[in-house]
Amino acid sequence: MAGPPAAVAAVRVAVRAVLRDLPNGSLVLVACSGGPDSTALAAATAFEAPRAGLRAGLVTIDHGLQDGSAERAADVVAWGAELGFEPCEAVRVEVGARGGPEAAARYARYAGLDAAAARHGAAAVLLGHTANDQAETVLLGLARGSGARSAAGMAPARGVYRRPLLELPRATTHAACADEALPIWHDPHNVDPGYTRSRVRAVLPALEEAAGGGLMAGLARSAALLRADADLLDDLAAELLVRVTVPDPAVPDGDFLAARRHRTLDTRTLADAHPALRGRVLRRWAIEQGAPAGTLAWTHVDALDALVTRWRGQGAVHLPEGIEVVRANGILVARHVARRFVPR
């Protein structure tokens, strides 16, 4: 008896690999937008999860950014229900202005997925990112100049999230959808030149051709190597961050979240650290204070580093989301500045 087409088989094998360690009877959720990548992922999960003794659910996020988004989300839910996903639901999220439109949508999307995973007790949430997405992420990280972590791309697994398709090209997921005649929707935002990732996506084929092939695979290998290095350096930086923290006496003992938000840093101790660790400490600290990771560039971290190692009495460093960082008596302090309303 003939097996499934090659593309369908490749997606199923990738999904099967990330389900192996999940406890029998546990729930795995698929984040499905209705696009080709996540639709191929959902179809493969519907096939593989029962064979692995797992329950499969589906969540589609409605960002409400386009006309008809609620109807498209309902169509995805209806299709998922036909495949037997339970639970199978659409989650409407509110997209704010955190870090620009792309970062804001991403932040809202993951908040919705986090809530769904917690609500249903999911053991894992599967995401449909492909090798193309990984290549785009690495190129964007390199362009931002934010260091190895930013250029390390997306992790195959982090927390509850897993990315089974990260080593498969987008062409494979598109072929799998065609082979199974799956209903797919193409998000116009993916080709909108107003979005940075869309512009990178448009030039990636030309870069692949100019490199003589193998560009995406090379970027993926580089990302994996950088991720291993970054993991080690991040662990060391976390230890250093604890050492350079100046406790805030106003924060009650045991309130760890408040302690992180109000953390201040001793510049004298931090100045003696290796630059590779010092930069990571400053970046992590800036994110803790509320600066979105996707909007922090090398220029921000370098300006913070100047407050530590090149102090000449300069003024505040301005970070995304209205955060100002000042140095006072050898201590770095972050404060939130109310944004002024500018009438149009």
From TrEMBL:
Limits of the tRNA(Ile)-lysidine synthase substrate-binding domain: 265-330
Localisation: Cytoplasm
All copies of domain tRNA(Ile)-lysidine/2-thiocytidine synthase N-terminal, residue ranges: 28-202
Keywords noted in UniProt: ATP-binding, Cytoplasm, Ligase, Nucleotide-binding, tRNA processing
Keyword Ligase carried by entry: yes
Residues that coordinate or bind ATP: S33, G34, G35, P36, D37, S38
InterPro entries (alphabetical): Rossmann-like_a/b/a_fold, TilS/TtcA_N, tRNA_Ile_lys_synt, tRNA_Ile_lys_synt_N, tRNA_Ile_lys_synt_subst-bd
Reactions catalysed, as given in the entry: cytidine(34) in tRNA(Ile2) + L-lysine + ATP = lysidine(34) in tRNA(Ile2) + AMP + diphosphate + H(+)
Main location: cytoplasm
Enzyme Commission number(s) from the entry: 6.3.4.19
Family as reported in the entry's similarity comment: Belongs to the tRNA(Ile)-lysidine synthase family.
Domain characteristics, as noted in the entry: The N-terminal region contains the highly conserved SGGXDS motif, predicted to be a P-loop motif involved in ATP binding.
Protein purpose: Ligates lysine onto the cytidine present at position 34 of the AUA codon-specific tRNA(Ile) that contains the anticodon CAU, in an ATP-dependent manner. Cytidine is converted to lysidine, thus changing the amino acid specificity of the tRNA from methionine to isoleucine.
Protein name according to UniProt: tRNA(Ile)-lysidine synthase
